[in-house]
Amino acid sequence: MATLQASGLTLAYDKVTIVDELSLDIPAGQVSIVVGANGCGKSTLLRALSRLLKPAGGQVLLDGADIHSKPAKEVAKTLGLLPQSPTAPDGITSRELISRGRYPHQGLFKRFSAEDEAAVNRAMELTGTAGLADRPVDELSGGQRQRVWIAMALAQETDLLLLDEPTTFLDVAHQLEVLDVVSELNRTRGITVVIVLHDLNLAARYADYLVALKDGKIYAAGHPTEVVTEKTVKAVFGMPSRVIPDPVAGTPLVLPIGRQRVLRTESVLAANGIFRGDAPVNEPRALAEGLEQDSAVIEEEAQAATRAVAEADPNLARPAREHLQTLAFQTTVLRSQQLSPSFRRLTVGGADLEDFGTNSHPLDMRIKLLLPPEAGFGPNSEIASLRPDALTSPAEQLGWYQRWLAIDPAQRGYMRTYTVRAFREAGHRDNLGTTPELDIDFVLHGKVVDGRLQGGPATEFGDRAQPGDPLLLLGPNKALTDDSYGGIEFRPGAASRIVLAGDETAAPAICAILESLPANVTGHALIEVPETTDILGTTTRSGISVQWLTRGTAEHGSLLRDAVRGAVAIPGAGVVQTTADPEDINVDEDILWETGQAQSAPFYAWIAGEAGTVKELRRYLVRDAGIDRKQVAFMGYWRRGKQEN
Ligand SMILES: Cc1cc2nc3c(=O)[nH]c(=O)nc-3n(C[C@H](O)[C@H](O)[C@H](O)COP(=O)(O)OP(=O)(O)OC[C@H]3O[C@@H](n4cnc5c(N)ncnc54)[C@H](O)[C@@H]3O)c2cc1C
């Protein structure tokens, strides 16, 4: 039976030590569960145990030998890892995904053998996923999907199975379903299991060996009845509690005492911005007009999240990832690819991105790029304090954006809004690196002077960036956001007929949205780009017809306006027949940003691009075609002659 040990292990990102000289013997044939507060280093430890992270000191020993002395493929025959929130390629079926677990057993030219087939069938039987074999993974429930991922790790047929938070974002029934499958595998097949789990009570129920981590060191380890004590819970989670025997399992059950605060009604919490309700369309958050307000929304959300903590102790410094919804991610340019004359794709990656995302498809997720000023100063302290590991208090964060804005641009640099064209976790089939990576598609606008493109700061960065260059960006904190994240505007509700329309700056968002749409959606995607050679490949399973409009010498937006009129006749589909004249917006002063949560209507439109064009389309769709404004998102992505900030 394979053995796994950590010996004097030190793990660090940049110069920040996360795990400090830790030694651990994983008991063979048992279920070990690692628990600890957010940021204590438990996922980092698991990554090192699975060979994904190279230690700064010490060793991980697999069968007595340094795991890094063995080739990855050999390790993969002994040890299977299920990372946190893995993403499956769009449209892949359960059987196809599970079959990928066989890769370590296949030679360069070896085909899928009868032995591979048998291993896949065994894994499906053990996890109860045979009935899901032909179903697309992205159509399964959270619990089913997680069982399919476990089956993939099992098909690898390893002695050791490592699972990073396999129950995150599942409801309680599905959490139990997943842990039951894993513990049954351990009992029936003798597989050694190591799990990182955030739920202490479930950990106490399922673990044979429980490891409580605190600040990167083992605080206590042993049988749950030895480890789960009121003293350990207080020390490790900073939480007073009572520990009683679990009446169902007999294992220790932790009852948090909390701070004995008076219960308040949801409306009071909502008024304080702690809960985000379903804001009606004309409330400030939904009407985040313009890019400045868009940035204000980021700050407002960050503040909303911090306020809850601030009430308890506003001055308590904690890692930013524990209380800020929006974090600053330090990344490095990995690749630069010219997609067409007008589009350049930068792929950036880095360990910070492990905290990035909303645990859902990015859709039209926006991020903010922090571009250095001409003189190239580093990020200022306002932004540095938003890094995931930065120790900061909620009080310190209030008003950070206004303070940042007040700094001279020559010192602070520039902030620009871009779309996440694609995000790939480490372990994704198209990500060969050890950290997550994301693609940003830059439109290269401006003029070429003396052989150099002169546009705005973002365009010049996109044009010139080389692999190895740093890029700082602001985006969602995976631990504190979900698919209701304010940086995603594509909210079609139950609509089955959709129009997506935009210029080249909206092409990355439209292409990403198209990849996510299910087969039962029909409609039109209309994308205006400068040249025929700028027509990019798009994939969609939906019935949406994609039309690329090439501008050539025509006026910017004119082809898009005509095409939208062609696609949405008067009266429009899903019409409410308001014939309301939308109030005028001065797109040179304010920025057009009107997004609503679509409801049950069958039609939804998403319109983005140059603000003047979007304004005209808004007038047409709302006044002439009579479409309900709740069913349309109108977004001025940029304004001719106007810089972002
Ligand atoms: C939610 C959202 C998502 C976005 N996603 C993307 C994306 O994925 N890819 C992308 O390329 N852009 C995207 N944009 C648009 C991008 O933010 C703007 O084009 C931005 O102004 C570019 O910054 P810059 O530093 O190059 O130019 P700025 O310094 O802001 O502007 C300099 C000058 O260039 C002009 N200008 C700006 N953009 C263009 C353009 N596209 N064509 C012609 N002239 C222009 C301005 O009017 C100004 O006169 C997005 C915008 C939003 C709000």
Automatic annotation (TrEMBL):
<dbReference type="Pfam" id="PF08021">
    <property type="entry name" value="FAD_binding_9"/>
</dbReference>
<dbReference type="InterPro" id="IPR017927">
    <property type="entry name" value="FAD-bd_FR_type"/>
</dbReference>
<keyword id="KW-0406">Ion transport</keyword>
<dbReference type="InterPro" id="IPR051535">
    <property type="entry name" value="Siderophore_ABC-ATPase"/>
</dbReference>
<keyword id="KW-0285">Flavoprotein</keyword>
<dbReference type="InterPro" id="IPR007037">
    <property type="entry name" value="SIP_rossman_dom"/>
</dbReference>
<keyword id="KW-0813">Transport</keyword>
<dbReference type="InterPro" id="IPR003439">
    <property type="entry name" value="ABC_transporter-like_ATP-bd"/>
</dbReference>
<dbReference type="Pfam" id="PF00005">
    <property type="entry name" value="ABC_tran"/>
</dbReference>
<dbReference type="GO" id="GO:0005524">
    <property type="term" value="F:ATP binding"/>
</dbReference>
<dbReference type="InterPro" id="IPR039261">
    <property type="entry name" value="FNR_nucleotide-bd"/>
</dbReference>
<dbReference type="InterPro" id="IPR027417">
    <property type="entry name" value="P-loop_NTPase"/>
</dbReference>
<dbReference type="GO" id="GO:0016887">
    <property type="term" value="F:ATP hydrolysis activity"/>
</dbReference>
<dbReference type="InterPro" id="IPR017871">
    <property type="entry name" value="ABC_transporter-like_CS"/>
</dbReference>
<dbReference type="GO" id="GO:0016491">
    <property type="term" value="F:oxidoreductase activity"/>
</dbReference>
<protein>
    <recommendedName>
        <fullName>Mycobactin import ATP-binding/permease protein IrtA</fullName>
    </recommendedName>
</protein>
<dbReference type="Pfam" id="PF04954">
    <property type="entry name" value="SIP"/>
</dbReference>
<feature type="domain" description="FAD-binding FR-type">
    <location>
        <begin position="326"/>
        <end position="483"/>
    </location>
</feature>
<dbReference type="GO" id="GO:0006826">
    <property type="term" value="P:iron ion transport"/>
</dbReference>
<dbReference type="InterPro" id="IPR013113">
    <property type="entry name" value="SIP_FAD-bd"/>
</dbReference>
<keyword id="KW-0274">FAD</keyword>
<keyword id="KW-0408">Iron</keyword>
<keyword id="KW-0410">Iron transport</keyword>
<keyword id="KW-0472">Membrane</keyword>
<dbReference type="InterPro" id="IPR003593">
    <property type="entry name" value="AAA+_ATPase"/>
</dbReference>
<keyword id="KW-0067">ATP-binding</keyword>
<dbReference type="GO" id="GO:0005886">
    <property type="term" value="C:plasma membrane"/>
</dbReference>
<feature type="domain" description="ABC transporter">
    <location>
        <begin position="4"/>
        <end position="240"/>
    </location>
</feature>
<keyword id="KW-1003">Cell membrane</keyword>
<keyword id="KW-0547">Nucleotide-binding</keyword>
<comment type="subunit">
    <text>Forms a heterodimer with IrtB.</text>
</comment>
